[in-house]
Amino acid sequence: MRIMEHAPANRSPHHGSNAATSKVMQQMNEGVAFVQALKANNDGAADGNEGLVVEQDVRQHEVEEEGVVNSHTIIVKSRQQYDLGVVYEVRDDETFEAIYGDYASRVDLSTTEIVLKKFGMVIAPTATVSSARIRTGDIIYVSGVDPSKNMNTKFKFFYIRNTCTPPTELRVYGKLTSKLWRLFDKWAAEVNKDPNCLKLMHQDLELKRDKIIGQSGIKNSDYVYAFPEF
User: Fold this and answer.
1) Low-confidence ranges of the chain (pLDDT < 70)
2) Which helix (H) or strand (E) holds 204?
3) Pick from 178, 132, 133: which is nearest to 155 by CA?
4) pLDDT tens for residues 160-204?
5) For residues 121 and 118, what is the distance between their CA atoms, to the nearest angstrom?
6) Where do the H-state alpha helices sit in the chain?
7) For a surface tag, which of 2, 24, 218, 226 has the fewest beta carbons within 10 Å of its beta carbon?
8) What would the CATH number be for the domain defined by 155-228?
9) CA 21/CA 191 separation, integer angstroms
10) At 65, is the secondary structure helix, strand, or coil?
11) 57 and 31 Cβ atoms separated by less than 8 Å
12) What contacts 15, CB < 8 A, 6 or more positions away?
């Protein structure tokens, strides 16, 4: 498995012999049949997946040459709007265990707390890329076993609270690249204080206004504590 920072440009399909072309046609027919079966399954589903739209199979089918292990570029993401996801390059003989591990660490969960799905069908960690019928351009969606958990790798859900009785608490949804001064300003507006007179602490470390959330060590569901600056 290889993690890619940017999605690669579209590749042209491989060219081969007549036998290879026949094999492509067979794969395309199988792909159409697979999508039709999935559509029928989703139409009759009663397991909470109502409204799931089966994506059309418009990807380019690659010729699988004898003795060659193909690699595929895929995107793994949440269903949240505007989530660009994480781009992985995987080989036919790889299992999904490494992707489960990497993605779970990005959202601060264990591998047993997330589920990967293609067309609403669960992909087990032990499934191979080949057995899951993965091809370049596929999008794999991630959901949490606990649906309240954040699955977007580019954001963190966390809380700010003070030490008053009863405490004031604010839930924050912050982009990893956001400056922490925005956090100071947001809390100051919540408690009607001057942001320059506040101190924010996370795990015994003082947060600096000029840093970004991604540098602060803040994880999903963490608490940031606010104190007055003396």
Assistant:
1) 4-67, 229-230
2) none
3) 178
4) 998 887 888 999 999 999 999 999 999 999 888 898 889 999 998
5) 5
6) 18-43, 97-106, 181-191
7) 2
8) 3.10.20.90
9) 68
10) coil
11) yes
12) 63
Which tokens go with 25? 């046609």
All CATH 3.10.20.90 domain ranges in the chain, comma separated = 2-144, 155-228
Q: Which fold has domain 2-144?
A: Ubiquitin-like (UB roll) (3.10.20)
Q: Kindly state the tokens that stand for 150.
A: 């954040």
CA dihedral 178, 151, 126, 49 (to 10 degrees): -150
The one-letter amino acid at 10: N
Residue owning tokens 């999935």:
38
Are the C-beta atoms of residues 38 and 54 closer than 8 Å to each other? yes
| Cβ atoms of residues 120 and 38 within 8 Å | yes
Residue 63 half-sphere exposure, CB side, CA atoms within 13 Å?
Answer: 14
